[in-house]
Design goal:
The complex is a heterodimer. By secondary structure, chain A is of the alpha+beta class. Helices cover 46% and strands 11% of the residues of chain A. Chain A has seven helices and four strands. Chain A has a four-stranded mixed β-sheet, with helices on one face. In chain A, α2 crosses α3 and α3 crosses α4. Chain B folds into three domains: 212 residues, NADH-ubiquinone oxidoreductase 51kDa subunit (Rossmann fold, 3-Layer(aba) Sandwich); 100 residues, Ubiquitin-like (UB roll); 96 residues, NADH-ubiquinone oxidoreductase 51kDa subunit, iron-sulphur binding domain (de novo design (two linked rop proteins), Up-down Bundle), CATH 1.20.1440. Helix content of chain B is 42%, strand content 13%. Chain B contains 19 helices and twelve strands. In chain B, a hairpin with a 2-residue loop joins β6 and β7. Classes of the chains: A alpha+beta, B alpha/beta. Chains A and B meet through α2, α4 and α5 of A and β4, β8, β12 and α15 of B.
Chain lengths: 167, 450
């Protein structure tokens, strides 16, 4: 596909690599994959991973094994917005099951699926460190906390609007 | 009101910015450390303070610092463990988000004491907005001469870098964190060699939790001896507790470790009691890995003494009747919570987070989740409870890193204290799908303060 960082992204990539000593550029792999995922439609294709490998002068397998280890990297295409809903103990005792059911029903998708219009993906995740503000979910960089059904409605409407304005 | 050393300025408007932080007495500890002290005397003060690692293990911080090897010509590194991922724990997030300069101050002092010229903050990837806050603070500190070259004219150079993880609980384990910081999977290393000898890029490295490093600031300001006077026994200083679950006031609280568990749960100063006027059923007092305790053993020890929020008291009775301070993630469960289901969500968590390196953990965590799922869905048999017990016992102590233990303990404690609830699920496959065991576990009414 010939994907490449644009100038701004490349500047950021170089800043990431510069944080480590000479010859230790592989340390920039995790941040570089975050940057790549943000830059290329929210997921890491094989081409993307190969590109990162070439930038860091490491073998592609060194990138694949890392990308498949960490849960934040998406190895399949995802919707424009990913709802990552926490389901671990503290969220569960605060009612996350109801929130998850409500999102499934409202968006008519199961965990791991994307809505037909390609706007939303639902992902169930483990503890995100927001236990005191449960139930919660992460959308991109943002935490949405103290979730209620009403709040979920507002969030969905908000992102639908955002998706429409992007088109 | 208890003593506050870390969060005393948390409510000052604008404390996140350099100007306000400095005006409120910020960076005076760095001045004192770099101008009036030397690396050895700083380590000595931290030793005297009795400060124990705040990430969960509780290892004396000064001791850890004193282990760092100093081979000629090999750079050393300080790494700040901000991979806070233990369910129930969200205190480091609070510190970084609202008091970034407090952490930086601790990092600069610790870097000076250890001789680290490039210090790294490894922060969990999901806290995606916090690196921006930290980097902003780093830039401010640099612009004001607290970071960079020749800090305060002492000849000491130091830079702090922020690295995001990408979703892996295991990276909170220090050697897994180092692997991740080197751009690899978070597979823990076999110790020895310990990081203090061969850590990041095989160089001598100290890894400390966010709260531990922040606590260095008051220790330098007041002196180790004064700090050690706060608290009780080997629980010196203050501890941040992140309280969550079925309580009226979830949040991050700073305690001086002399408060009783009962006061912590029921007083207005802290958790404000159980939500909705319900009864306390159980509590996991130190993050998901530590043993769950039923209400009666939580508020009082097996000997009938008041239990306090400190390292010694929380672990009084060992695992038979006690628990642990752990990371300070305090998870409260009310009468409506099902112990089997709660244990299942934790088992699923550990199965998801096992790095897969050691067979007992990789396989065992999956088996435990499956069996708990079976019991939770009303398909369990009595022998499954014994099987669960057997599996957890075979994981504990048989893995490279403590994740195996962390996965075993919640299952073991749930069966140890709530076996009747597991049996009730097996004996009542249908009823257990529509109602829960509630407080039937308790023969006597639970002691609940008025």
């Amino acid at each position: 596909m010939g994907m490449q960082f644009n100038e701004t992204q490349m500047t950021e990539f170089k800043r990431l690599v510069a944080r480590y000593p000479e010859g230790k550029q592989k340390s920039a792999l995790l941040p570089a994959l975050h940057l790549a995922q943000e830059s290329f439609d929210g997921w890491l294709s094989t081409e993307t991973m190969d590109y990162i490998a070439s930038l860091l002068s490491i073998e592609p397998i060194e990138v694949y094994e890392v990308a498949s280890f960490y849960s934040m990297y998406n190895l399949k295409p995802v919707g424009k917005f990913v709802f990552e809903v926490c389901q671990t103990g503290p969220c569960m005792v605060s009612g996350s099951d109801n929130i998850i059911d409500y999102i499934k029903q409202t968006l008519d998708i199961k965990p791991g699926e994307t809505t037909k219009d390609g706007v939303f993906t639902l992902k169930l995740v483990e503890c995100l460190g927001a236990c005191g503000y449960a139930p919660m979910m992460q959308v991109g960089k943002i935490y949405k906390e103290h979730l209620t059904k009403e709040k979920v409605d507002v969030i969905i409407a908000e992102y639908r609007q955002l998706a429409a304005s992007k088109n | 009101m208890g003593v506050k050393l870390l969060l005393d300025k948390a409510n000052v408007p604008g404390i996140r910015t350099y100007d306000v932080y400095r005006r409120e007495g910020g960076y005076t500890a760095v001045e004192k450390a770099l101008k009036e002290m030397n690396p050895e005397t700083i380590v000595e003060e931290v030793k005297k303070s009795g400060l124990r690692g705040r990430g969960g293990a509780g290892f004396p911080a000064g001791m850890k610092w004193s282990f760092i090897a100093k081979p000629e010509g090999v750079p050393r590194h300080l790494v700040c463990n901000a991979d806070e991922s233990e369910p129930g724990t969200f205190k480091d997030r609070y510190l970084m988000e609202f008091l970034p300069h407090l952490l930086l101050e601790g990092l600069i002092i610790a870097s000076f004491a250890l001789g680290s010229h490039d210090t790294y903050i490894y922060i969990r990837g999901e806290y995606a907005w916090i690196p921006d806050i930290l980097e902003e603070a780093i830039n401010e500190a640099k612009a004001n001469g607290w970071l960079g070259k020749n800090i305060l004219g002492t000849g000491f150079d130091c830079n702090i870098h922020v690295q995001r993880g990408a979703g892996a609980y295991i990276c909170g384990e220090e050697t897994a964190l180092i692997e991740s910081l080197e751009g690899r999977r978070g597979n823990p290393r076999i110790k020895p060699p310990f990081p203090a000898i061969q850590g990041l890029w095989m160089r001598p490295t100290v890894v400390n939790n966010v709260e531990t490093l922040a606590a260095v600031v008051p220790i330098i300001k007041m002196g180790g001896d004064e700090y050690a006077k706060i608290g009780v026994g080997k629980s010196t200083g203050t501890k941040l507790i992140s309280a969550c679950g079925n309580i009226n006031k979830p949040g991050v609280y700073e305690i001086d470790m002399t408060v009783s568990v009962e006061d912590f749960i029921y007083s207005e100063e802290y958790c404000g009691g159980i939500k909705g006027g319900k009864q306390l059923k159980a509590c996991i007092p130190g993050g998901s890995s530590v043993p769950i305790l039923p209400a009666n053993l939580l508020l009082k020890t097996a000997k009938g003494e008041t239990r306090y929020m400190n390292y010694e008291s929380l672990s009084d009775g060992g695992f038979a009747t006690g628990s642990m301070m752990g990371s300070g993630g305090f998870i409260v469960l009310d009468e409506d919570q099902c112990i089997v289901k709660n244990t299942l969500t934790l088992a699923r968590f550990y199965r998801h987070e096992s790095c897969g390196q050691c067979s007992p953990c990789r396989e065992g965590t999956g088996w435990m989740e499956k069996i708990l799922m079976k019991i939770e869905q009303g398909k369990g048999e009595m022998s499954d409870i014994d099987l669960l017990w057997d599996i957890q016992r075979k994981i504990e102590g048989n893995t490279i890193c403590p994740l195996g233990d962390a996965a075993s303990w919640p299952v073991a404690a749930a069966i140890r204290h709530f076996r009747d609830e597991f049996e009730w699920h097996v004996n009542n496959p249908e009823l257990s799908q529509t109602s829960n065991f509630g407080l039937q576990h308790y023969a006597d009414p639970i002691h609940v303060p008025a």
